[in-house]
Design a protein that fits this description.
Beta-Lactamase, about 55% helix, Heat Shock Protein 90, about 475 residues, five-stranded mixed β-sheet, binds adenosine-5'-diphosphate
């Protein structure tokens, strides 16, 4: 089963890790406790046995002393009921002189006897008649290099086992309680930390195409979630701009298409209202054709831009002699310039070849030359030049026309934008020419730059990468 909530997943992970840590720590603590308890017991047993062996060595007697209680208290801190002290002769026989033991007698193992004969002490855990095993130390008494007796000291492991069990019980009671507390706390913390994500999700759900101006709440704390909200808000801002541009574009395109259609319809309606001469019909048809040309031109431009936007602009790439192309454009446009009393002259045309689509490049350059002539008053001039360096071929189209303010220079490349000055002109397009020119330049890996002074003229430079 997949758990969908990050908070729940975090809590499960956290609690599992905590359980593992508790178990490891508890296990280690239990091990250390058991080790230190049994070491303490062995040390105490050894202490008692040493004293008895010492006495037996000095006094020559191997009898269980009367101050056993005192002796145990000295080394253990208390005198246990279940304790054993026995004296044996070197062959392992119980000394008949000693008083009977307070508790049951423990056996002397063959291993302990063998070790003692070699002068070695032996610690053993043996089953006793009580309910708990006993810990036994068998120590040899050595006099003048000979084993004279064996001292056996033992004690029930009851206390030690009970302490160990108590520790385990405490652990078993504390562990689930601690885990519950830590898990619950972790869950609450995770929920609190992730609450802004829920709020953001709800806010994001409310934002649709119609409400792109809404924004997610930023806390200003600068943490990860605040940065996420900021990033999403920036993205919403960009989407809002893009939506706005698309809406504006659709409105402008519809408007530009509607104008010639209205004219066409109006002219036809007027022509049909009464009987006309064939010349009049011809005039109406000619004017209608002009409007259809305008629509055609506009639709072509829109299609080209849409293809360029989608990155599917069809390009027939071949080497293009730019000088030759510019000369053709010059010849074509010189007539237009002449009609408007504008001097148009090509200057310094180098022979440069670029790899490109000839028809697209022609459209680009024609647009720019057409604009230069359109926005230059009679008596002005338009110049054309072509230069190249190692990287770029650059075509410059300069005019002494109306020019553009800094602000307008930025905006003339947006769709359907026409500068205020241009709008007052009788002639002029719909404001798509420069967008198309720029799209074509960019599709060739190039760009268009503009320098202009209002009232003095403009220079448009097309930079195309050299082949
Ligand atoms: P249009 O069809 O209006 O010429 P363009 O996209 O070609 O559209 O040009 C956009 C605007 O840029 C024009 O309306 C005009 O304001 C400005 N512009 C373009 N070329 C020039 C120029 N050579 N001199 C002054 N203004 C220009």
């Amino acid at each position: 089963m997949r758990i969908r909530s990050i908070g729940a997943r975090l809590t499960i992970w956290y609690t599992s890790l905590l359980t593992l840590t508790f178990l490891l720590l508890g296990g280690t603590a239990y091990g250390l406790l058991a080790y230190s308890l049994s070491r303490d017991m062995d040390t105490a047993l050894n202490g008692v046995a040493e004293v008895l062996a010492q006495r037996a060595r000095v006094e020559g007697s191997a009898v269980v002393p009367s101050d056993v209680d005192e002796l145990f208290r000295r080394f253990f801190g208390f005198s246990p009921l279940e304790r054993h002290i026995e004296m044996f002769d070197p062959r392992g026989r119980r000394d008949s002189r000693q008083p009977p033991s307070r508790s049951n007698q423990l056996p002397l193992s063959p291993k302990a006897l063998k070790n003692a004969s070699q002068g070695l002490s032996t610690f053993e855990t043996v089953e006793s008649t009580g309910s708990y095993p006993a810990r036994v130390l068998t120590m040899p008494v050595i006099r003048a290099g000979r084993v004279t007796n064996l001292v056996q000291v033992g004690m029930s492991l009851e206390n030690m086992y009970k302490t160990r069990r108590r520790f385990l019980l405490i652990m078993a009671a504390v562990l689930p309680f601690g885990l519950l507390l830590a898990g619950g706390g972790g869950w609450l913390l995770a929920r609190r930390a992730l609450k802004p994500v829920d709020i953001m999700t709800q806010a994001a759900r409310r934002i649709s195409g119609e409400h792109l101006d809404e924004r997610l709440q930023e806390t200003g704390s600068g943490d990860e979630l605040d940065r996420l909200a900021k990033t999403l808000n920036d993205m919403l801002g960009r989407l809002d701009d893009a939506f706005h541009q698309i809406r504006q574009f659709s409105a402008d395109a519809s408007h530009e298409l509607q104008t010639p259609l209205t004219i066409l319809k109006g002219e036809m309606e007027v022509a049909l209202r009464s009987q006309r001469s064939s010349e009049e019909y011809q005039r109406v048809l000619k004017s209608g054709l002009e409007e259809i040309d305008r629509i055609n031109h506009l639709v072509e431009g829109l299609l080209l831009l849409a293809r360029a936007d989608a990155g599917v602009l069809r390009m027939d790439l071949r080497p293009v002699e730019l000088k030759e192309l510019l000369q053709e454009i010059y010849e074509q446009m010189n007539v237009v310039a002449d009609n408007r009393s504008i001097s148009f002259h090509p200057s310094s045309l180098e022979t440069v070849s670029v790899r490109g689509d000839r028809e697209h490049l022609r459209r680009l350059l024609l647009n720019l030359v057409d604009n230069a002539i359109k926005y230059t008053p009679a008596g002005g001039s338009v110049a054309l030049s072509l230069q190249s360096d190692e990287e770029w071929a650059s075509v410059r189209i300069s005019d002494t026309g109306i020019g553009l303010s800094k602000d307008e220079q930025e905006r003339i490349f947006t769709r359907f934008h026409r500068a205020t000055e241009a709008r007052s002109q009788r002639e002029g397009g719909v404001g798509l020419g420069l967008c198309i020119a720029r799209s074509i330049a960019e599709a060739h890996g190039g760009r268009i730059q503009v320098e202009s002074t209002p009232g003095q003229g403009s220079t448009f430079t097309v930079l195309l990468p050299q082949t």
